[in-house]
Amino acid sequence: MDHPFGYIKDNKVFLKGFLGQEDREIGEVKEDEASTISYFEARFEQIKEKVAKLKSDIQGNQNKGSFLMKLIHLRDSLFQSDALGDFIPLIEELNEVEAFLNEIIKSNRSKNLEVKKALILEAEAMKNDTDWKNTAEFFKELKMRWIKTGPVEKEIHEEIEQEFNGSIQTFFENRRHFFEGMALQAEENIKIYEALVIQAREAHDFPDAKMAFEISKRIQKEWKEAGKVPAEKRQPLWDEFSKLNNRIFSRYKRGLNPGPEMHPREVLRKIDEMVDELKKMAHQPSSYAITSRAKAIQENWKKLPMRKPKEANLPARSYQFFMDIIFEKSFLEKLAHNKYADFDSLPVLEQNQIKSSIIKDLLHRDQSELETMQNNSDNFRVQTPDFEMMIRKKLSGLRRKVDVKNYILKQLSPKI
User: Fold this and answer.
1) Domain limits for position 323
2) Of 85, 114, 149, which residue sits at a domain end?
3) Which InterPro entries did the record assign (predicted)?
């Protein structure tokens, strides 16, 4: 049975070749030849409807270029469709629509190229900007505008992508290097602040109040000139540094205004009274009242003349020793309560065992520091007597810390 666009042979249905293709088998007779032909003609009508719908969709859509691949796939499928009909007009229709779409796409890509060139100029103008926060936001917004802009011709796609991304990369590389440099500089600046705190400690322990004050003025100026560091790292150093310098200034000021003269015997009497009271307090359990009273005694001590009689040397050492015991015991109480929330409810024996364990750890640290200082003291020996005096005073202070902790440890030991 013949058909304008096909035929039936040996119970098989064939589509006549077109546009250079050979005749192709598309099916077989199921019931009779007439109904089989009708079936494959109906399939062709469905294909025509698909082509018509695609054309209609393209006509009604603003983004016509987005249909190009769909059109190509549909046209390619026509060469393999199992249907009977005239495929050539359909293919020619789709070829015309493809040419139309290519013109639109070419025009759009030309416009896209102009837009992207403008975006490249914007990126180029800002790539070396150092307003890191605002410029980073600018580049994020610029990148979104780039992404939303349609494609350009494939031949230049890679080139303009590299040009645009190169400017963005330059900015973010500059920003990374800047903050890495800041971080490294901050580390160096922290070392400067730490060194100034050490100098403040040494000046604070200097026996010569005037020299200590001169050092204090110098290091305060250096502090102001030191670079930036994160506030959370700088603040603890500043707290200690300012406290030490305030004490240095107060001592220097007292030396300039010594106040009314006090007879040496009166000085000794007051010192003995303070030492006696501190000694009694040092043997009592730590409390808020005791530490408050110790602070009041400290203020009274400051009111004594800077130059004390020689007979005051020994009781002055006792004053410092018992004062240290009182504050060390107060510190020990805080550590114990921080470590054990139910500390107050524990038996006294167990409380003392806890305190003993804590004080032993602190004692071990102080002993290690003392041994290190003693072993290295020869390396610090210089020609200036003041510096040697400072080293001796530092060693004396470390020994006193060890003695204080041993004294408290003995108080905590169970009585036999």
Assistant:
1) 261-339
2) 85
3) DUF349
Kindly state the percentage of the chain with pLDDT values over 90: 35
Cβ-Cβ contacts under 8 Å for 45 (sequence gap 6 or more): 85
The verdict on residue 134 lying in a domain is no
Token look-up 């190009």 returns: 68
Tell me which residue has tokens 């494609």: 151
Q: Enter the tokens of residue 3.
A: 């058909």
Alpha carbon distance 251, 119 (integer Å): 66
Q: How far apart are CA 380 and CA 313, in angstroms?
A: 26
Cα(363)–Cα(409) distance, integer angstroms:
9
Asked whether residue 119 is assigned to any structural domain, the reply reads no
Distance between CA atoms of residues 266 and 220, nearest Å = 38
The whole model's pTM is what?
Answer: 0.41
Query: How far does CA 153 lie from the centroid of its chain?
Result: 42
Distance of alpha carbon 333 from alpha carbon 343, whole angstroms: 10
Report the mean per-residue pLDDT for the chain. Answer: 86
CB-facing half-sphere around the CA of 156: CA atoms within 13 A: 13
- End-to-end, the C-alpha distance of the chain in Å comes to 127
pLDDT single digits (tens) 118-167: 999 999 999 898 888 899 999 999 999 998 888 888 888 899 899 899 98
Same domain, 399 and 326: no
Whether residue 232 is found in the same domain as residue 272 = no
Chosen domain end from 306, 339, 372: 339
Number of domains in the chain: 4
On whether the CB atoms of residues 26 and 84 are closer than 8 A, the answer is: yes
Q: Is residue 158 part of a domain?
A: no
Quick check: is 393 in a domain?
Answer: yes
